[in-house]
Design goal:
This protein has three helices and seven strands, in the order αααβββββββ. The chain is α+β, with helices and mostly antiparallel strands. It has a domain of 116 residues. The strands form three sheets. It has a three-stranded antiparallel β-sheet with strand order 3-6-7. A two-stranded antiparallel sheet has the order 1-2. A two-stranded antiparallel sheet has the order 4-5. A hairpin with a 2-residue loop joins strand 4 and strand 5. The termini are far apart.
Length: 203
């Protein structure tokens, strides 16, 4: 009986040892599988050089398509701003006429420094008929902003036409083009992209 008990006890111990070995083996295999899975995930989550080059190429293509559109929108905004200044000059001249029943005279047909002086203070009653933002002025008078787009000419004075004859029609040349409009006052500059096209009230 004693011998049988000893044998059974030995079998249990052996079984436990064998079981521990199996558990240890299973744990080791699980750790190995998890490690391989993590490495595989890290590898799949990273970008290859080809993928990076493709992404950079797509971004460059989109930027190339977008920049001209943005530049065009900015140029349109600048033209609208210049046209607004031309309209303000026209309004000032009409206000001068309403006050003195005659158009201002300053010795030229553009918005030079003499025009600026007459329209802001140097007139019979010292009235300021025109408010001009600093970006539209320099020593030569009222001019286009620096970023308007004249590559070779720099900034330009506005041109002014007035119906001093009272016929109700103005005809003037813009570059090689001739424009006739029913107006008493017209103020404009040439389009930087097309010298035959006016930007302003002379259309």
């Amino acid at each position: 009986m004693m011998a049988t008990t000893a044998i059974n006890s030995t079998k249990v111990k052996a079984g436990l040892f064998a079981g521990s070995g199996c558990v240890r083996l299973i744990i080791d295999m699980t750790t190995l599988i998890n490690t391989k899975s993590a490495l595989s995930y890290k590898k799949s989550a990273s970008f290859t050089l080809v993928e990076i080059l493709v992404v950079v190429s797509i971004i460059g293509l989109l930027a190339g398509l977008g920049f001209p559109a943005i530049n065009g929108a900015l140029q349109t905004a600048r033209k609208a701003e210049v046209a607004g200044m031309a309209e303000s000059i026209k309004t000032g001249i009409l206000a001068y006429y309403a006050e003195y029943l005659s158009y201002p005279s300053w010795g030229s047909s553009n918005t030079d420094s003499n025009f600026f002086s007459v329209m802001t203070s140097n007139n019979p009653r010292g009235i300021s008929f025109l408010e001009v933002p600093p970006k539209f002025t320099n020593s030569s008078g009222i001019v286009t902003p620096e970023n308007f787009g004249y590559a070779n000419r720099g900034r330009s004075n506005f041109l002014v036409a007035m119906d001093t004859q009272g016929i109700g029609v103005l005809t003037n040349r813009v570059g090689a083009a001739t424009f006739t409009v029913p107006a008493s006052v017209a103020v404009w500059v040439a389009d930087p992209k097309n010298p035959n096209k006016p930007v302003g009230t002379f259309k």
